[in-house]
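From the shared-data thread, chain only:
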Amino acid sequence: MSVCPQTAPGGFYAATELHAGLVCLSSARAMDLNTQRILFEAALEALATPPELINQVLEVTEEVSGDIVVTVHELHAAAG
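Structure, as tokens:
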């Protein structure tokens, strides 16, 4: 299972010149199976009208309040 740690956004993908896209699920609360299902469902809904994800990250985050935020942003290569 891949993890997208906050200290190394994109992990190995950040060093890849070209990739098909990355989906990250995260939560400020406990990441139990039910939370994973809810976040994955939100990711699938966001992908129903596919954004261009080449070299992009689709992040689905559950905030402390329980709100789910979906963002798409460019994954920059790590410096150095």
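The beta strands are 22-27, 56-62, 68-74.
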